[in-house]
Every structure is written in C-alpha cells, then in structure tokens.
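Final report, closing paragraph on structural work. Over the funding period we assembled a curated collection of sequence-structure pairs, and we close with a single example.
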Amino acid sequence: MNAELKRVHSPDIYNLKSYHPECSDCFCFLLQAMIGPAGEDGEESFDIEVCTPKWIEKNLKADEALIGMHYLIVREFNYQVIVLAIEKFLVGCSGESWSEVSKKVSRLGFWEFEGCLGHD
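Its predicted structure, as stored:
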C-alpha cells in the first residue's frame, strides 16, 4: 500500500494556488495535507508548518532551539514546489497496511490520529 496526496489546504489562507505572502521569503503558515491510500477513497489530515529560513531566523530567539519535526522549509512561497516536495516524500511511504503507511507519513506532518489508542 502506498500513500497519495489527495489535496492541500490551509485554515489561514483562502486560496493557496493564488496566495502571495506579504514577504515572499519570510513567512510561516499551517498547511493541512490530506493524504490517503493511493487509488482508494479516504484521506486523513497531516499538519505541516511551511516556513522560510528567514522566518526562522527572525522568530528564533538566541536562547531557544527549534526541533524541526513537521516543518517544511522553503526559500520562498511556490505552491508547485510545496506540493511536489510532499509528493516526493510520500514515494517513500509504503507498507502492508494504512496504519503502517500513516506512521511513516506522520514524520512529515502531525497526523490527526497521532496519539489515539486503537486507531488502525
């Protein structure tokens, strides 16, 4: 079984395809990647923070550390680049069951069922 990107959306941005951040190389927003089994119905949400190195530099205090899990770092906003990066990541996410596959996908984004007992 393989993972497939079904669609992306952001609760903060009305239309991602036509979005132009105020500063093209300094931004951060929540992206929800809707991913499910390839060729099958169904999808689950994986939350990813999309940001730039400049945004990290501007927002990371000298005495702080940032753990990069669930971040997608880009130089500037480009919808195609973001979608292709997610699709490329998903090529390596396969397994015998959706449970196995989704655990691999959850390295990319925070899975809506992460931490839920009994979800398979």
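The mean pLDDT is 91. The radius of gyration is 15 Å. We thank the funder for supporting this effort.
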